[in-house]
Amino acid sequence: MGFKRLLASMGAGGASVETELTELNVVPGGVVQGEVRIQGGSVDQQIEGLSVGLQARVEVEGGDQETKQDIEFTKLRLGGAFEAKAGAVHVVPFGLEIPWETPITMFAGQHLRGMNIGVTTELEIARALDSGDLDPINVHPLPAQQAILDAFGQLGFGFRSADMERGHIRATRQRLPFYQEIEFFPPQQYRGLNQVELTFIADDREMDVVLEMDKKPGLFSEGSDSYRAFKVGLDDYQGTDWAAYLNQWLAQVGGQRNWL
Predict the structure, then answer these.
(1) Would the pTM count as exceeding 0.85?
(2) At 163, is the pLDDT very low, low, confident or very high (cuts 50, 70, 90)?
(3) E-strand spans in the chain?
């Protein structure tokens, strides 16, 4: 029995963990529901801890290189220590809150390429960690975010790409160690404009909307007229014609630079 316990502590014949999500579709500020199923191994084992969290794969710029890094940006511990009986199944339900800043992964009913966000599960057994696979979730825009996205569509902008970058945008409410950029390519009437990049940074009351034209990699130039940041209330966004607002800014900057 002692040899079996040794093997189990090394992962051979030990308990395994699997997570099942009740609903894959969520919004920032919402809750993802699910349950963790722990299948007991060939011997009884002491489980020291069980947790679930959210993980994002973000871009990290360093020198001339760009790498990918998995960042866990929220974590929930599920109960305390317990014993996983050999061959028994232990089911632990959970509700994991989605931070308001969580990047969206869905746009116009489609998954945004490059957006990799999901639920991670971690089982602590005898000073070892057993991590389950990443269980992807679909993060849909909040109504206020959807209004801004719809405004770009009304002006004829098309989605180009999206990514998540490690770093911080100054003078915003950002708390996570990374942010999302959604890139649009312009219609013909905005000739000379290469692209517009959009970032949402929300909390439970309002959000910062950050826009930039022709962004240079890794630099946010707040002093430039090609950069704009403004606040939008999550409950009072409907009082503004966002397509007209965006068009006024684009036309003003474009006229000054002879883009139009």
Answers:
(1) yes
(2) very high
(3) 16-21, 25-26, 31-39, 45-62, 65-77, 82-84, 89-97, 106-107, 110-111, 117-125, 128-131, 135-136, 138-139, 158-166, 178-185, 196-202, 206-213, 227-233
